[in-house]
Amino acid sequence: xxxxxxxxxxxxxxxxxxxxxxxxxEQTTKITPQDKLVLYAYDSFVSEWGTGPKVIPxxxxxxxxxxxxxxxxxxxxxxxxxxxxxxxxxxxxxxxIDNNLLSKAVSEDIFTPYKPEGIKNVPKSLIFDPSxxxxxxxxxxxxxIYDSDKISxxxxxxxxxxxxxxxKSLILMDPRTSSPGLGFLLWTIAAYGDAxxxxxxxLKPSILTITEGWxxxxxxxxxxxxxxxxxxxxSPAYHVENEHTKRYQAALFSSGHYMQIExxxxxxxxxxxxxxxxxxxxxxSKDFQSKIPLTNWMYPVSExxxxxxxxxxxxxxxxxxxxxxxxxxxxLDTWLTQWTNAxxx
Length: 345
What we know:
By secondary structure, this protein is α/β, with parallel strands linked by helices. It is built from 12 helices and 12 strands. The protein folds into 2 domains: 36-139 and 261-309, D-Maltodextrin-Binding Protein, domain 2 (3-Layer(aba) Sandwich); 140-259 and 313-344, Periplasmic binding protein-like II (D-Maltodextrin-Binding Protein, domain 2), CATH 3.40.190. Strands 1, 2, 3, 4, 5, 6, 7, 8, 9, 10, 11 and 12 form a 12-stranded mixed sheet that branches. It is globular and about 55 Å long.
C-alpha cells in the first residue's frame, strides 16, 4: 500500500512536469529564452544614465530574450556601421535613426518594414515613415544652449549667432556624422533656403569647434570650453533635475526651431527577426515610453506619459521647422557638399 502510494505520487509528478513543459513550449514557440537580440544605438542611449539601462532589463525579464547592445557614437555613425555590414548584418535593430537620416537609410536599403500594434497610439504627425521601416519613439527640438553665467544676452535668432560678440563661442556637430549636426544644417536650410552656404560663411567666426558627435560636443560645453552648444530645448530640464541648477538655458528663436523625431527599425535580414519585432512593440509601451523624459531627455511619442516637473524648464518653441523627407532625400548629398565647401573656407 505504501509502495503504491509512492508510485502514484511519482507518476503525478511526471504528469505535472510534462504538462508544465508542454505549456512552456506552447508559449514560446516563436520566442524562446535562448533567443538573442542585437541593438546598435548611439552613445547617450546606452550610457549609464541613458534609456537603455532602464528599459533593456525590463524587456529581457518580460520576454526572456538576451539583449546585446553596441554603441557606435552618434546616430549617424550607427547608421554608417550598419551600412558597412548590410551584406552580412550583425544588428537586428538600429536605434536613433531620425527623420533626417531616414532618406540615407532608405537609399541604402537598410531596413525592412514592420507595422507594430502600438503605432495606433502615436500621433500621425510623428509618423515620419509611412512605410514603417522606422518607427518613432521620441521627439524634440534643436536649440542653442547657453551658459547664463557667461552670456547675459543670448542670441535671439540664427542670424544673431553671427554677431561678433559671439566669436569662438559656439560648439556644433558635424552633419556628416552626427544627427544633431545634420539637424542644425537642415535648420539653416529651412531658414535660408539656397542661401544657406553664405550663412555658414558668416557663422564660421562664431564657431569654436565642430565635433563628430553630440556627446563630445556637449561635454566640451559643460567643461567650460565654450558658452554655447547645439543641443535640445530639453537640455535645461536635465540640469534642473540632476544638478538643481538653472544655469544652462535654451535660446528661443521666434523664427522657429528645427524638429527631430527619433526612431528605431528592424535591419533587413536581421538574424533575430521575431525578437526584433517584440522589441519594436515594447518601445511603444508605457514601460519604455515613461523612461524617456528623464533618460533620453526627449518627449515620448506616447501621450499617456506624464512629464516630470523639470520639463517646465524645457520650452516648446512656438514655431517648428521641418523639411519634407522627400526633399531631404533628393538634395542631401548636394547640401552636404555645399556645407563642406562653406565650412572649409
